[in-house]
Amino acid sequence: MPLLEIQNLVVRYGSALVLDRVSLAIENDECVAVIGPNGAGKTTLLRSISALKDWEGKMTFQGHDLTGVTSSQTVALGIVQAPEGRHLFPQLSVRENLELGAFLAKDKAERDTNYEYVLDLFPRLGERLRQMAGTLSGGEQQMLCVGRALMASPRILLLDEPSFGLAPLVKEAIATAVRQIMAKGTTILLVEQDAHMAFELARRVYVLEEGHITISGTSKELSEDPSIRSSYLGL
Ligand code: ATP
């Protein structure tokens, strides 16, 4: 049984159909990426899984039907999103932002373990615990966004464009952190416009175009596909 299974997901904004019968599945411990152009519906897909957007179709997580489940219930189930555009609390410190990520963590020991884990993963955050989040660099804000999501003990981490707007070296630091998170056994659903990053990190990739999955396969297969190479990899 896949960890997360999505069948015929349909999402609308008013009368606009944004996701049209999207189906995908993620196995335990896999990293799967969704790539696609601007406006294809990638963020909407993640927001639907984390119950921030209404949807139709069928979604199950660990066999549990997600119909009618609220966003705080999805977090309690272990579905945690690190959103695009960071969505941090800019006037709060790095430490306070991390603590807010743990709002559902059951016990102090778990919170402390997660806190140590995040600071090990991102030592730069440890050096800036009292700094206001709004004054961090773009790369540091992205680290904080991922770190805050990890504070909620995800079973599956939904990552929305973690490399967006970052310089190559900072992108590489984020990619290294994502690999470490995978090595810890966290399943990852990665949404990326940077297809190079997606192919580097994910075992399998789905291409989402205008609300449809147009092609999917292993990273190796897709990175050898001539249309993917010209449309997404600039080759
Ligand atoms: P990007 O890479 O540019 O973030 P995306 O693939 O993540 O794009 P979405 O953000 O999911 O795409 O948007 C898909 C479509 O839904 C777009 O046409 C967008 O304009 C529309 N859309 C997104 N949010 C809303 C909203 N709150 N109200 C109305 N339409 C919306």
Automatic annotation (TrEMBL):
InterPro entries per the UniProt record, alphabetical: AAA+_ATPase (IPR003593), ABC_transporter-like_ATP-bd (IPR003439), ABC_transporter-like_CS (IPR017871), BCAA_Transport_ATP-bd_LivF (IPR052156), P-loop_NTPase (IPR027417)
PROSITE patterns associated with the record: ABC_TRANSPORTER_1 (PS00211), ABC_TRANSPORTER_2 (PS50893)
Claim: Nucleotide-binding is one of the keywords in the record: yes
UniProtKB keywords: Amino-acid transport, ATP-binding, Nucleotide-binding, Transport
GO MF terms, alphabetically ordered: ATP binding; ATP hydrolysis activity; branched-chain amino acid transmembrane transporter activity
Keyword NAD: no
One of the GO BP terms on file: L-amino acid transport
Domain ABC transporter: 4-235
Family according to the record: Belongs to the ABC transporter superfamily.
Protein name: ABC transporter ATP-binding protein
